[in-house]
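DM from R.C. (forwarded with permission)

"hey, sorry to bug you on a friday — could you get me a structure for this? deadline for the figure draft is monday and I only need the backbone to look sensible"
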Amino acid sequence: MLWGQILVGAGGAGNASQMSIEPGVNELVIVEGFLTGAAGATIINGYLSTTPLTGATGNLVARDARRIVLPGGTAASGTFIRQQNNTPLGGTATQCFHMTTPNGDTRRIPLDLVLVAPWSLRLVNGTNNSPLEITVWVRVRQATPRELSIGSL
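My reply, with the result:
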């Protein structure tokens, strides 16, 4: 059980603020949901992608204190939150959802999306050159060989 928060700043004209949940090697990740932040987007698009983002913010933080392995609260997981804000949107396979929230409103969005590498969930501010603030809740466990082979590229 992991969670993490990220604030991706505005990246300049024509650039999209985006973050992703990227599963670690041999891990099965269930993205339970996310919370839009007050400094976040009014339009959020969700995509599946196999293209990693460039900025690694580190591991997600444990929601289960039994799994904490470092003083900062990091859990024993290879799953990362990544970010990027210096390029237009690209490298996405399919759009999963499109949502609009009132400016400054926070909403918790349930997903229950299952991921294995190389697939990631990418959340993108639908307005270029705008920040993106997101809190995510995920569950991570070791995947079985069968789970890893289903639909593998």
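R.C.: lifesaver. The mean pLDDT is 87.
me: no worries. Residues 6-84+103-110+117-123+133-148 form one domain.
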